[in-house]
User: Which sequence fits this backbone?
């Protein structure tokens, strides 16, 4: 099993989190986005959208972090990151959809404008950041409400839903968005628990 990715990429890191939770070391091929290695003919064969991460197994090559994470959870031994019950699985799927539909796109807008553009001499679009933060506030308030019901987003055990939100939340905190992320108590509590996990602090150790 091989992952094509980049250690700084939030989507790659989500996959590494799952592999760490599963205690499964992986061969890692670094794709340098700054050098455009994700747009080479070779990589476009792996993912026609020119993105990372990509998982290569002896049977197939797959892209899309959430699909990869669901596959890894199902395939590998160890902790189960998908709830057993249909009701909790429904909640997990809902949160993973909130992640890909609303959270990641808005978090990316903030991180691009507050971290990456300034780093490369570009100008921050404050209006876009403000608009994205409004959506993010709704998401974190909704998380707070969900976390009134249980310890984690899809029940009292950690699941792929929780993992989906960790890496971009980390980037939002690096982008000085504490007031957006930490407005609500249950989210602060959830974040504290997620950051105690080895899959947060030691995810790069899973690389062989
Ligand atoms: N929906 C995709 C998104 C993948 C994605 O946007 N990856 C970023 C890194 S986190 C990337 O490859 N960026 C390079 C680019 O857009 O050129 C997934 O979850 O795998």
Assistant:
């Amino acid at each position: 099993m091989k992952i094509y990715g980049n250690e700084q990429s939030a989507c790659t890191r989500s996959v590494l989190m799952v592999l760490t939770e599963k205690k499964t070391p992986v061969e890692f091929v670094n794709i340098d986005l700054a050098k455009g290695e994700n747009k080479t003919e070779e990589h476009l064969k792996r993912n026609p959208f020119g993105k990372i991460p990509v998982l290569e197994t002896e049977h197939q090559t797959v892209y899309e972090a959430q699909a990869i994470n669901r596959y890894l959870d199902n395939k590998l031994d160890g902790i189960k990151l998908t709830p057993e019950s249909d009701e909790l699985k429904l909640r997990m799927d809902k949160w993973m959809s909130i992640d890909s539909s609303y959270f990641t796109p808005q978090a990316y807008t903030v991180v691009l404008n507050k971290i990456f553009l300034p780093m490369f001499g570009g100008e921050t679009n404050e209006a876009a950041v403000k608009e994205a933060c409004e959506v993010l506030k709704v998401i974190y308030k909704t998380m707070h409400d969900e976390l009134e019901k249980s310890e984690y987003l899809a029940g009292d055990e950690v699941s792929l839903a929780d993992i989906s939100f960790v890496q971009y939340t980390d980037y939002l905190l690096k982008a000085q968005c504490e007031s957006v992320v930490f407005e609500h108590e249950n989210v602060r509590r959830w974040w504290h628990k997620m950051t105690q996990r080895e899959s947060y602090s030691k995810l790069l150790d899973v690389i062989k």
